[in-house]
Design goal:
The chain is an alpha+beta fold. Among the domains are: 95 residues, Nucleotidyltransferase, domain 5, CATH 3.30.420; 245 residues, Methylamine Dehydrogenase, Chain H. The chain contains 5 helices and 35 strands. The strands form 9 sheets. A 4-stranded mixed beta sheet has the order 3-2-1-4, with helices on one face. A 4-stranded antiparallel beta sheet has the order 8-35-34-33, with no helix packed on it. The longest helix has 62 residues. It starts with 6 loop residues before the first strand and ends with a strand. The relative contact order is 0.07. InterPro entries: RFWD3, WD40/YVTN_repeat-like_dom_sf, WD40_repeat_dom_sf, WD40_RFWD3, Znf_RING/FYVE/PHD.
Length: 591
């Protein structure tokens, strides 16, 4: 390389030339192409203890000058090291060292007094401590204190390799990232092991339940021939229905029982009760369907008051409760804790889950309104619709999706004393539609919908005589003490989308004051059955649809029937019948 294109830096220093602060003077001239391009002579910012240190402090200017000229591109041919013209033997020896990092370890601490004289730090401290407030400089006798002593150097000087520092920072960042990733994987491993243990427990529990169910089914089949409850009225149906008749499987004595539902996923009965005495506490009782039929009582908050309706979700193990405390609550069937509570504008009489979406719920209110809720919105209903009248909605059923409606529209069928109403939520409609031929049948007291929502049966009793201009068609809020069976009817409707067709009706003995429950039994390939209570004989009557012929009668033990529910458990159909303080569970083998 041509030497004329290289830069040279003659440097020189004077050690401790300033008696006030003992700082050295740096001097350099940077030459390029035999011409001086930069020069300087100034006091150093750092106190140097030796000429070698002072030369190093001055030599750093060569590094900054080379970077500056290279970035400007004025002399693009500058390459390699910049020759330093130095006359200090210690600095020359240190420059020749193969070490890339230069560290100076000072042998002792050096300090300066306010007068400018320099002493060892430990020595001058001892001197001033001995003299106390009369401390003076040993050389010039000027007054001095420990606060005036100043250290004249840095403990270490480093010539730092910037590229190496970048690599170190990068490696430290990678190490931190790997440590965090390792910690996350360790936490995940712990969680996976915990879940694995829980799954093992669930598998063992399910195996035990399967064994119990198989034993119960075999016991039920062995005694079915001698324990068929009820009889077939229609002789033509006798031989066909006898093999599939419902058989009494278990009876439970439950004081204060009012409503119930079946948690098929957990294989439990959920029963709403009001205890006599103790201030009339309200509670839920959980009873296992498997031997030994363990019981668990769940006390409800006093603010909920009487439970008007309850339904177990078809999607997961949660229970929907409508109560006289103007609340709609969601309770976990696993841990018995309240998951969600909505405050309602008035008392709810009925509630229902949406079979198409696990998040949606519905509540029928005392003032004739129906509210739609989304469990992901915990403060208020999604939509409120006002009914055709102000009569209480005693039954609300969420219907399966209608392909003829727009996406997002959800349909509900409700029952009040005036008849049946069809509601479309999310359609922009402000009012429901009255189902044809349901308004002139009398007072609607019950509504049953099948799982497929094709067959619908509504129960009616006759309207009371009019008094003046007022028709006493309202449902009484407080029933009289005595009950009376009246001549009523069960009316069968067939639903197709949002349209309804009346298919037939049958006479029945119904309650003159209560609102009994009824159910439709879907039996797969066989015709469905309609289950309702006969108020005259205190029996549970099963009628085949669509003929409404009586297929079986199940004797009730204590008084009129309050609630009827049907569900499937494995390949068995379970029919529950609640009358006063007695709950009967009947079963049948499904084909």
């Amino acid at each position: 390389m041509d030497n004329s294109k290289r830069g040279y830096l003659p440097i020189d220093t004077g050690i401790s030339l300033n008696k006030d602060d003992s700082k050295s003077i740096s001097g350099y001239v940077f030459t390029l192409n035999d011409g001086a391009v930069s020069w300087k002579s100034s006091k150093q910012a750092t106190v140097a203890y030796s000429l070698t240190e002072a030369e190093y402090i001055a030599a750093k200017e060569a590094v900054s000058m080379k970077k500056f000229l290279t970035e400007l591109g004025v002399v693009p041919s500058i390459e390699g090291a910049v020759p330093l013209l130095c006359d200090n033997i210690g600095a020359i020896a240190q420059f020749s060292s193969v070490n890339t990092s230069i560290i100076f370890h000072l042998l002792f601490f050096c300090s300066c007094l306010p007068c400018g004289h320099i002493y060892g730090l430990s020595c001058i401290k001892k001197w001033l401590q001995q003299k106390g407030s009369l401390g003076k400089c040993p050389q010039c006798n000027k007054k001095c204190t420990l606060k005036g002593v100043r250290v004249l150097y840095a403990s270490r000087l480093h010539a730092v390799d910037e590229e190496l520092q970048k690599k170190i920072r990068s490696l430290e960042s990678k190490r931190f990232s790997l440590e965090k990733e390792c910690s996350d994987w360790c936490k995940k491993e712990v969680e996976w092991r915990r879940r694995e243990a829980e799954l093992h427990k669930q598998v063992e529990h399910l195996k035990e339940r399967i064994t119990c169910v198989e034993g119960s089914l075999s016991e039920m089949q062995s005694r079915s021939s001698g324990h068929i409850f009820g009889s077939n009225i229609d002789s033509k149906l006798g031989r066909r229905e006898y093999a599939n008749a419902f058989v009494l499987q278990k009876e439970f004595q439950i004081d204060g029982a009012r409503l119930f539902d079946v948690d098929s996923n957990g294989e439990n009965l959920m029963i709403a009760r009001r205890l006599a005495g103790m201030g009339g506490q309200h509670m839920l009782t959980k009873i296992s369907l498997l031997p030994p039929h363990e019981r668990e009582d769940i006390l409800l908050p006093a603010s909920m008051k009487t439970i008007k309706d309850l339904h177990v979700s078809p999607h997961e193990r949660v229970i929907l409760l409508a109560s006289l405390g103007k609340k709609l609550s969601v309770l976990s069937a696993e841990n018995n804790h309240t998951v969600l509570t909505y405050d309602l504008p008035t008392v709810p009489w009925s509630c229902s889950w949406d079979p198409n979406n696990s998040h949606y719920m519905y509540a029928g209110l005392q003032n004739g309104m129906v509210l739609q809720f989304d469990g992901r919105q915990t403060t208020r209903p999604v939509e409120c619709m006002t009914g055709l009248t102000g009569n209480p909605i005693h039954t609300v059923c969420s219907l399966s999706a209608d392909p003829t409606l727009s996406a997002g529209v959800r349909s509900v069928l409700s029952a009040s004393s005036v008849g049946l109403c069809h509601w479309n939520f999310g359609s922009g409609e402000e009012r429901p539609c009255l189902v044809p031929e349901s308004e002139n049948q009398g007072i609607c007291i019950s509504l049953a919908c099948g799982d497929r929502n094709d067959d619908i049966v509504a129960s009616f009793r006759p309207k009371l005589e009019t008094i003046g201009d007022m028709a006493a068609s309202q449902v009484p809020l407080t029933p009289p003490v005595t009950e009376q069976a009246v001549e009523g009817s069960h009316v069968l409707y067939r639903r197709v989308g949002s349209r309804y067709q009346k298919l037939g009706a049958s006479c029945a003995k119904v309650s003159g004051i209560r609102l009994p429950k009824s159910a439709i039994i879907d039996r797969g390939n066989q015709n469905p059955l309609f289950a309702s209570g006969d108020e005259a004989t205190m029996e549970l009557v099963l009628q085949e649809l669509p003929s409404l012929n009586v297929a079986q009668r199940v004797k009730s033990l204590n008084g009129p029937i309050r609630d009827v529910r049907y569900t499937r458990l494995l390949n068995t159909g379970l029919l529950g019948c609640l009358s006063d303080d007695n709950l009967q569970i009947c079963s049948t083998k499904l084909q």
